[in-house]
Design brief:
- This protein has a 17-stranded antiparallel sheet that branches. The protein has a two-stranded antiparallel sheet with strand order 2-3.
- The longest helix is centred in the N-terminal third of the chain and has 11 residues.
- A hairpin with a 2-residue loop joins strand 9 and strand 10.
- By secondary structure, it is mainly β.
- It has one domain.
- It contains four helices and 19 strands.
- The protein starts with 13 loop residues before the first strand and ends in an 8-residue tail after the last strand.
Length: about 350
Amino acid sequence: MATPTGPSKRLYACGSKRGTTWGTAVAVGALDGILAKGDGGFALVQKYEQYPAIDEIMPMDGILGLIGPCDFTPPVGLQYEMGRWGSWLAAIFGTAGVPAQQGETAAYKHTFQWADFVTHFFTVVQERPGKIWECASAMPFKVAFKPEGSYIGAVLALRGNTIVDDSATNTATQVDALTYANRGKFVNFVEGKLLMNAQSGAGLSDPTDKIEFSDFDLSFERAIDAVHVLGSSVIALPKEGGFPKNTLKVMLPRVSDVNMAYFSTFKAMTAQKVQLVFTGPLIAAPYYYSVSFVLPRIRFAGPPDAKFEDIIKAGLTFEIEAAAAAPTGMAYARPYMEVINTQTTDYLA
């Protein structure tokens, strides 16, 4: 098929594949499609720099400036079968690995663990009218999750080196070959629950530790740089420097004396642990599709926010930290994710 030329974004595709050498594109193909809802600001970042010399009434020449960083944040609806977008998410955590088969079924458990540094990067392509735009190398560094109606929405940021429209690696042939792991299996608001208790307490259990909430905002961000080195117009492979910025915000729809006890918890700086889990359709008994965010240690960033309204709500904001050791009922001391679906391969392979 020829690359579309019409004005509607419905015609155009997006795909991605993990790279091996920064700055060198790899070809996309089957199962590399990304079901993005927008381009996320996918564009070349470069300016023309005039040279304002003396003895000129106005500038008469200049050069093209350095490129990038080309940051873009395509929004998606979170899926249980995450496909190639799941590779971006796994890259932010840093470690995925071969999934564990659940019994003798088609269900497989993937565990994304928080590595010391983010290191993985991807080639990303998007179609434009009559053109294929390609970012040879882009590193995922930030992701945020929050409800969007019935869907759980996600916005993931990548930092790219440059964008070209004349790639010899990804042409209409490669983009036409894009397919998707699944076009459905979306994570639904009604499928979620949040469990929380003291980090030092017993393992989390439902309903004992279930928190009634109406909204949340969960974000993870790696502190990567964007450095140019002599001889290149594009940024070098980003490196992670400072501490990550990981936060959880939860809205409790109705304040009660139980909710307001969190004021004392804040004052005492008592660390908590959290599991935010979504459970979807059955894969094979007794295994269901699921996405679980596991936070072994969180601390209140401030006291509960409970302003006077007709129905008083309470907003809780937490900083996500690492525990000294895995708390009771959890496998690791750092934040991690567990995903159960039917993908049999490593998301970072």
